[in-house]
Design a protein that fits this description.
Helix content is 54%, strand content 17%. The strands form 2 sheets. It has a 5-stranded mixed barrel with strand order 1-2-3-6-5. Strands 4-8 form a two-stranded antiparallel sheet. A hairpin with a 2-residue loop joins strand 6 and strand 7. Helix 3 packs parallel to helix 4.
Length: 234
């Protein structure tokens, strides 16, 4: 009887051990299955990303082809314009003429305009002065730049002006350097007189510099524009 009991106990122990092993293996199996599912989901996500990237590559390749076509077209246009400019060179001796007329097609800012001369457009920089910049971070000077631009526009925009050359023909940016007149108004001088421009000498173009400096002194004394008491260092 004791022997039978021992046998039963041994069997029960083995049954418990086997059950424990089975439960452990089942839990491991479930964990591995969950890992497999998670990995499958990651693979699916990555495959979707690959598809999206491949579509983007195709789109970029198409865009690149379109850009290459546009670049070729622009190069062709540039070549045509270069040929036109080369052809015009022989017909533009007026760049050295002391005085000439032009039509103002655009006012850029207080001291720069764009004009049309026999069908060709040129930027013209006023000689002997400097106006505040439109992008000046100081509000008071930005406001004066806008006022100078407004006055310049009022004086010359859309009108026929007379351009007078000094010693230089153009500046380093290819702009014509000129004194500008509309009717009986000397525009360079008017901007300085109203205190919307500093009289700035730019050698060797100083033909009217003394006159412009006299007008600057007048504006300073009157406290106009740039010379308003609120702008002067106290």
């Amino acid at each position: 009887m004791n022997r039978w009991k021992v046998t039963v106990v041994i069997l029960l122990v083995w049954l418990l051990v086997a059950t424990g092993i089975w439960v452990y293996l089942q839990s491991q199996n479930i964990e591995q299955r969950n890992q497999i599912i998670a990995l499958q989901e990651q693979v699916a996500t990555l495959e979707e990303q690959v598809i999206t990237l491949e579509e983007q590559v195709v789109t970029l390749e198409n865009q690149n082809e379109n850009l290459l076509v546009e670049i070729d077209d622009l190069k062709s246009q540039i070549e045509v314009l270069r040929k036109r400019l080369d052809n015009l060179k022989d017909y533009l001796p007026f760049l050295d003429i002391s005085e000439m007329e032009a039509t103002v097609v655009r006012v850029i800012d207080g001291d720069t305009i764009e004009v049309d001369i026999i069908g060709v457009r040129y930027k013209v920089r006023y000689i002997g002065l400097d106006t505040p910049e439109l992008d000046d971070e100081r509000p008071e000077y930005c406001a004066l730049a806008q006022e100078a631009t407004r006055l310049n526009r009022e004086l010359v925009e859309g009108k026929t002006v007379r351009l007078e050359k000094d010693a230089s023909g153009t500046d380093d940016f290819g702009r014509l350097l000129r004194y500008v007149y509309v009717d009986d108004i000397f525009v360079n001088a008017e901007l300085v007189r109203q205190g919307l421009a500093w009289a700035e000498p730019y050698e060797p173009d100083t033909k009217y510099q003394d006159y412009l400096e006299e007008l600057e002194a007048e504006a300073r004394q009157a406290g106009r524009g740039l010379w308003a008491p609120t702008l002067l260092p106290g």
